[in-house]
Amino acid sequence: MTSLERAAPAALAEPVTPVGRGWTASLALANGAIWVGWYGPLQILLASQAKDFAPGSGMSKETMLAWVTGAGAAVSLAANPFFGALSDRTTSRRGRRTPWIVAGAAGGALSLLLLAGAGGVWTMAAGWCLVQLTLNAAFAAVTAAVPDRVPRLQRGSVGGWLGAAQILGVVGGTGLATVAGGVGAGYAACAVFTVVGVVPYVVRYEDLRLAPADRPPWSWRSFLAGFRLSPRRYPDLGWAWLTRFLINLSNALVLLYLLYYLRDRLHYGDPDRGVLVLTAVNGVTLLATVVVGGVWSDRTGRRKPFVIWSGVLMAAATAALAGWQTWPGAVVAAAVLGVGFGVFTSVDFALMTDVLPKALDRGKDLGVINVANALPQVAAPALAAPIVTYLGGYRVLYLVAAVIGLAGAVLVGRIRGVE
After folding, report:
1. pTM (whole model) above 0.85
2. Which segments of the chain have a pLDDT < 50?
3. Which of 202, 261, 276, 323 lies 20 to 30 Å from 358, alpha-carbon distance?
4. E-assigned strands of 75-159?
5. Quick check: 317 and 340 in contact, CB under 8 A?
6. What is the C-alpha separation between 382 and 252, in angstroms, rounded?
7. What distances in angstroms separate CA 162 from CA 81, 129, 143, 285, 371, one per listed residue?
């Protein structure tokens, strides 16, 4: 019997025993805590700092925000697969994933506190890059725990609960940033929640351990070569990555300038509160569909139809933002986007785990797939800033976003290895 066969019942085996509600709830809470650390800054705090730092800098607030978020997203592009690969090789007595969840959450909290003390655009960008670096270490480990522990026909429902925690994290981060009483207090509140939220999972549940004998021999060449996943060799993984990228890019284009859209286009009286209201509306409808969509997908054993129709629905809602530029229109669009993104979040996550090539590289491969979440944060500012400034404003921006999202939905049909 080889060492890989000995380890297969634990760290490297395809899981067959369903996970319990407590495990799912604790992992979901940890996931939500990470999203609080991301979206408190993204929705409110970074935009507020950009507004304060832009006068006299030679940049508009839109350009400054785009530059800072783009720099952070570039860090995220490398950090997620890198830390996923490191967790794949970790042989700690606490398991492969737990050490990175702890280190990433603690580092993220410290980075948020550093960002609170930023005095200009350079320190703001450095702080946000540190937040992305550390929280992506935790996020890579959290997502890899699902294919490690969850059977295939339970991944839709578990993905649904992780998706519910994600949107609650977005709403919670936005709420903390809004009601804390200032930029510094908002960052501090998000930092505390990020740490507290991961505690139940890392304390209550033992992670699967990888035996040192089963870790591949170390070399930089093989380690770096592992990040190259050939679409020709793994076509389903390539198409799944592309569809996630396009739909997330569409969503990122909608969210990036939401505060400025309310203030400068709709002339909404309290744009900060407006962002919170729209986020809450979106969250309510997302929560109504994210778990239901995942469970329904598990029961039917099918993934693609759910992803296709959720993408079409999101594209229609995004187009409505271009054609119905009023506060009621924004509320309706937020509600419909939540319905579509709820189903997409849970079922697309299950679809991604279904097309992973090898058990030994789950963390790294999911990290590469998660680049499709981070890369839109780089691409969205590069697309959105010139569109809003020179090419037609918010109407054209949201039409472009709708077309991109629709393309992502259509391309799901090219995945052949799952129903």
Report:
1. no
2. 1-9
3. 202
4. none
5. yes
6. 11
7. 19, 24, 9, 15, 18
